[in-house]
Amino acid sequence: KDIIAEKPKKPRKRRRKIEIDPSTLPRVNLDYSAAALKEECRARGVKGFSSCSKEDLVDMLGVNTIMMSGTMAYKTLQRIKEVMDDEDPGKRAEKMKKLEIKRQRGEKLHQDKRRHNEEQKLLHTKSIPAIHACKLAPTNQLTTFRGINRVEIATCSNLCPECETSPTIWSCSSCDFDACARCVNWFALPIDEQNARKQQYEMKKREQEEREDRDGRDNPFQRRRPEEANEYGGE
User: Fold this and answer.
1) Whole-angstrom Cα distance, residue 64 to residue 68?
2) What are the angstrom distances between the C-alpha of 179 and each of 30, 39, 116?
3) How would you write 134-173 as a 3-class SS string?
4) Cα–chain-centroid distance for residue 8?
5) 119 by DSSP, 3-state: which?
6) Closest CA to 55 of 31, 78, 77, 26
């Protein structure tokens, strides 16, 4: 019989162990944002973290444990997965469909906002150059894009010294400008009367400040905190 020579066995290739210095790896701490900590939960397969606060996320992951999602190797792996999804025809089509839906929603939102602004612009028919260069509209007829009446959020721009943040009656939505009845009546007055009333208002304000200072000197416990008043025998 012919002797069959045995083939020599190929030596096994040993996998080279990747050396990693643990001190160079990122660690979980409160310096990371809540979004980054949630991404770390996804990387570790942790569940039930969507409603957790930043402190709870750190406690859940463990302080000073390795931040796997912060390593370059993890980011590279995630990028490889994205490339694989792009090369998959089914996933690529699904991704394009989602992008198209998102684009259509954004376009519809833009059209709705534009239509709303045009409707609001038609209400601006009042011209009062003394207080504002643009045409104004009644505040109670204007609404935000979300349907909130402007009266609920508008505050007077304090054009006159007598304005005490009274309810606004005229507004310009494009400039975010609001004026109350006192401001409108103020600029309807002659310049001489405006100056006279301004001096009168400043005089009253100065007298009020002096009266408050005098009352504070007469009653030393009036402007102190309760604990300070108790130290000096106040009630």
Assistant:
1) 12
2) 46, 48, 22
3) CCEEEHHHCECCCCCEHHHCCCCCCCCCCCCCCCEEEEEC
4) 71
5) helix
6) 31
CA 203 to chain CA centroid, Å, is 42
Beta strand 168-172 pairing with 177-180: antiparallel
CB atoms within 10 A of CB 125: 9
| pLDDT given at position 4 | 57
State the DSSP string of 35-60: HHHHHHHHHHT--S-TT--HHHHHHH
CB neighbours (10 Å) of residue 96? Answer: 10
Mean pLDDT per 10-residue section of the chain, whose length is 235 residues: 60 76 91 92 90 91 92 91 84 87 94 93 90 90 89 82 76 89 83 82 82 70 49 45
The count of residues in the chain is: 235
Three-state DSSP class for residue 61 = helix
